[in-house]
Amino acid sequence: MPEPWSAFYHSDLQSPWLLLVLPALFLLYRAATGRRRGGALPAAAPFVDAYALLFAVQTMLDPIATGPLLRALGLADGSGGTAVMLLFVLLGDLRVYLLVFALLAIAAGRRWTSALPTAAAWTLAAPLIAYPLNAALQAASLRAAAPSLDANSIWLVYELVFVALALGMRARLVPARTPADAPRLHAYLRAVLAYVAVYYGLWASADVLIQFAGLDLGWLLRVVPNQLYYSAWVPFVFGRFFFAAAR
Q1: Is 36 exposed, middle or buried (0-12, 13-18, 19+ CB in 10 A)?
Q2: Using one digit for the tens of pLDDT, what is the confidence trace for 121-163?
Q3: Residue by residue, what is the 3-state secondary structure of 194-240?
């Protein structure tokens, strides 16, 4: 019999249904209020508004496509399901880099589209670091005749790599690239990257509890970053840009 938090985590209630509430409410709010102006970088307001609409839809499609839809099509356990899951993982990372580099491009007087190659390249950074690092850790474990890492250790490594990347960008890239006359943009980008580091850090903490301590509580903890990643991402980046950053 599955432990209670594991059963809840793997239920359709946790994903997709509870993950759809905030994005759906955001879309209703946006439909009722229309396009906003101003914010942390007024010239970027149209981009952030369109970005929020696009990724509100994408974050709703993600748990549906990688959960009930794949199961209904009989693809959940095959290579097709893995490909769909990886596609949405990369899209979830791309949205972070696209937001950061597009805003920096606009602040520098360029079109947001000029940031697409940079955002795409950065999206590959975490997997290109995490996969060989995980393989090296697995090999070291075998050589030491120690218990092998969990089969899902790649996700823990990936999460820790992304925390490091997000915090490194927050500490180095954002101060170096943000114009001196855009302090609100600087604060906004640092807040966004801190938010990303939090949800990846919580995922990593949950996976440590699950993989190394065998604690069912880890599945409950995993619910929190799921909500931050899926449900609250668009409301956060939209609200922080147009409201908190404007005060």
Answers
A1: middle
A2: 999 999 999 999 998 988 876 555 545 566 678 999 999 999 9
A3: HHHHHHHHHHHHHHHHHHCCCCCHHHHHHHHHHHHHHHCHHHHHHHH
**Is the pTM of the predicted complex or chain greater than 0.85?**
yes
Contact 231, 93 (CB under 8 A): no
> pLDDT tens, 51-97?
999 999 999 999 999 888 777 777 667 777 778 889 999 999 999 99
3-state secondary structure of 41: coil
The whole-angstrom separation of Cα 198 and Cα 159 is: 10
What is the CB neighbour count within 10 angstroms for residue 141?
A: 14
CB 127 within 8 A of CB 86: no
- The rounded distance, in Å, linking the Cα atoms of 83 and 75 is 10
The set of residues, in sequence order, having a beta carbon less than 8 Å from that of 15 and lying 6+ positions away, is 9, 63, 67, 226, 230
Q: Sketch the domain layout of the chain as residue ranges.
A: 4-246
- Domain 4-246, CATH among 1.20.1070, 1.10.3210, 2.10.260, 2.60.60: 1.20.1070
For residue 37, count other CB atoms closer than 10 A to its CB. 9
Output the six-digit token pair for 145: 């005749």
